[in-house]
Write a structure and sequence with these properties.
The protein is of the alpha/beta class and 451 residues long. It is 47% helix and 14% strand.
Length: 451
Amino acid sequence: MNWTQYSSSGRTSAEYREVLETVDFVAPNERVVFRTCVRERDCVVFQMGSADAERALAVAKLVENDVAGIDVNMGCPKEYSTKAGMGAALLSDPDKIECILSTLVKGICKPVTCKIRILPSLEDTISLVKRIEKTGVAAIAVHGRKKEERPQHPVHCEVIKAISEAVSVPVIANGGSHDFIKEYTDIEAFQQATGASSVMIARAAMWNPSIFRRKGLCPLKEVMQEYIKYAVRYDNHYTNTKYCLCQMLREQLESTEGKKLHAAQSTQEICEVFEMGSFYEETTAILEAKASLKAKTQDKDEQMEDTDVIKMTVRFDKREYPPQITPKMYLLEWCRKVKHPQPVYETVQRPLDKLFCSVVTVAEQKYRSTLWDKSKKLAEQTAAIVCLRTLGLPEGKLNEGENHLINKRKRENQEFLNNKEHEDDLLVEASHKRVHFTEGASDSSSSEVPR
């Protein structure tokens, strides 16, 4: 996902989730793009893809207080990245690379790094990393393959080693999962082969995160169950959880367990595959209890704060109203009839559970429901209902009998159709006259033409 499109325009927001104890960066569609927590603030590095220096800076400023550093991926060969000018596409544009990295280094306080792939020639690769070094980055990660090469191709350790010797900035070796790294002791072997200051691991870490354990790999099922616990506790989206677990199973995806995982359509179903159904129920119950307690406390605080607001416990159910008729329409119609200013709606979203509450002001009096709704539109309709019921006014429900708004709409539609027919008749008549006039003019003009 190209997050720079959201954050650079100020549409992505950072929210603290008290129940999960996380910091969430949320896109306009309510999707959590990045979730982190205090525990990992000093060790997690946020990697982004960008082809624009200012957008990259906007993203970095948004997250820098919650991460240890910022990394720009300039080596991803995937089409979704390269077609937008990001990832490996940047390797052919050193000026843009320099601009992006210099802008970030000057614009934020946290360390900035980047990840690249090697170029077709060693000379060009050395030239590029030296330009990158001059931008002031804290380190350079080098994937030891060319952009057209894939994991099945051997990693070029000798190129990474030449880079390590050519620059003074720390070089992080990457790309050894397939050829070198299968357990912890292999990490040091890859580091020595490349002469790098450290090693970056991607696929081997996905296959089994205990690759970083000095004592050796843990049993895969144990690792997967531990991962699932984190996924449940931090409300990770089930599709991402499922993807990561499939990466761990690899050759076992065709097993009974693998097929069940592939079929899972929720976090709960994933837990049941790995005999963790009770853990899911217990953990979600705890989270729901925390959310409920927090919501009740928040509601009590709000009730003390907005004593001038008339409240009622109601909810808008669209099925109780005729098509295209809503309480908001009735309230607006009434305000026009009695010559009040039109209703003003103020809607807020509760960060805790993402629910909405709206307060409507009519004739200087405020109204709202004590219940929170799933959307802004629903919350506004509910507020309108509270106002209408308090004033003893009809709200347009099906069981209220004759609906004057429906009758009004029918009259307006009929008037529109009548006017439309009248306009069509006039157009036909005018067109008919123009035809006769043109024919007369043609006859007249033709008679004047000499033979």
